[in-house]
Amino acid sequence: MASRAAEQREEARQSAARLEAEGVRNVALTWVDNAGVARVKTVPAQRLPEAAARGVGMSPVFDVFTSDDAITESDHLGGPDGDLRLFPALDRLTALAGQPGWAWAPADRYDQLGAPHPACQRQFARRMTERAAEAGLELRMGFETEWIVTRAPEGHHPAAADAYETLDYPCAGPAYGMTRVVELSDYLRDVTEALTVQGIEVLQLHPEYAPGQFEVTTAPGDPVRAADDVVLVRETVRAISARHGLRASFAPSFVAGQVGNGCHLHLGLYRDGTSLHRTPEAAWGLAPDAVSFLGGVLNALPALLAIGCPSPASYLRLQPSRWAGVYQCWGVENREAALRLITGAPDDPDGGHAEVKTFDAAANPYLAVGAVIAAGLHGIECATQLPEPQTGDPGVLGVRERARRGIVRLPATLTEATDRLEKSAPLYEAMGGVLHGAVLAVRRAEEAHFAGSEAEDIAAATRWRW
Ligand code: GLU
Ligand code: MG
Question: Is there a domain that residue 123 lies in?
C-alpha cells in the first residue's frame, strides 16, 4: 500500500508539473452519484500528488443525494458521519480545452483504510468488465451524447429552474438541417476541437430532431473508458456552450411533450480480438454468446430502466414513435426497438454491434455499463435465446397485434422500473446490497419528490440538472 501510494504520488508529481507548465492551476475530480449528477472536488494542481497518494475527502452521504440536492437514506448510507477518499484516475487526467487553467480526472472512491467503497459506481463498472474478461469476453462501448442548446438568459442564475423562463434557441433551422450547422458553425467547430485536443475521437456531429438539439458520437472503448468519456464530453459541451453565451441541457425531457435527449449505449462483443457480431453462417452474424448476452440484456430491460432511465423526467421522454425504444423488443436496424442490432457495412470488421436506445443522460454511466454487462453475462449463464426480431414501429400496431408478437411495453413509470430493479436477483448480486440499496433509495425519493407533479413542472425542475 505504501509503495503504491509513493508510485501514485510520483506519477502525479510528473503529471502536475507537465500540466502546470501548460498553465493548469486546478484539477477537478469528478464522480457521478446515483441520481446521475457529476459531483466534484477540486484541488490546486500542486496538490495533485497528495491527492493521488492519499485521496481527497468526500462524504458517503452523496450516495443518497437526489437530483434536486435533497438527501435521503438507505439501510447502509445516509447521515453526516464517515468519510471517503476520492482517488484521481491519473491515466485519464486531461487538460480542459473549454476551461483554460483547469484539468479533470474521474475518481474512484475508497474508505479511509484503502478498501474499495462498496457503492463506488466506477469500480462496479470495472468489476463487471473484469467479470466479462474472466468469461473471455471483451466489450467495446460508447455513449451517444444528445443535448439541447439555448441562449443563456441574462440576469438569470444559470442553475435556476424557472418554469416560466423563455427558451431562446440560438438556431432556427430544421431537424437534421444544414441550416442549423451554418447558424452555429463557430460553436460546433469549437466543440469538435475541444473534444479532439482532449483525446476524444469524434465520429459524428449532427443536428437532431428537437429545436436546438444536437448529437455527438465518439469512438468506443472499454466500458469504464466509455463512461469516463461521456462525463468528459458532457462537461466539455457545457463549457464550450458557456463560452459562446449558450446553455446546454442533457435532460431527458427538456420540454414536456417534445422529443427528448437520449444517451444511447452502444456495445460490441469480442472474444480473442474477434467480433462476435460477424460470425459467418450464423443468423444475424451473432455468435451464440452474443445471442445470449443480448438476450440477457433484453430480458433485464425493465429492471435496467431504473438504472438507465432514473428520473421521473425520463418517463416523459419515453413515448412511442420517438426513437426512444419504449417496447421490450429487438430489431435489426430498427430505431423503435429498445435493443437495436446494428449490422454496419459487411466489410467493416467493427461495424456490427448493438445499441440500447432507451437510456438517457440522467443515468450514471458507470452504473449503466456495469448493469448492462451483468445482465448480459447472466444471459450467457442461462443460455438465453433471442426471440424473433421486430420490424417497424411497435407503437403503431394495435394492442392485439403487439400481444400476438409478444411485445411488451417497458415500464412507463419510475416506480414500475424501480420495483423491477428491486426484484432483480442478478442485478442485486452484481451490484451488492450497499449499491443496490442506495440506488433504490434514491429512486424512491425522486418518485416521492415529484409525486402528483405536472409533466411541465417535472421537465422545468430537471431541465438543468445533468
Ligand atoms: N432523441 C431521441 C431519444 O430520445 C433519439 C434520436 C436518435 O435515434 O438518435 O432518444
Ligand atoms: Mg440521436
Answer: no
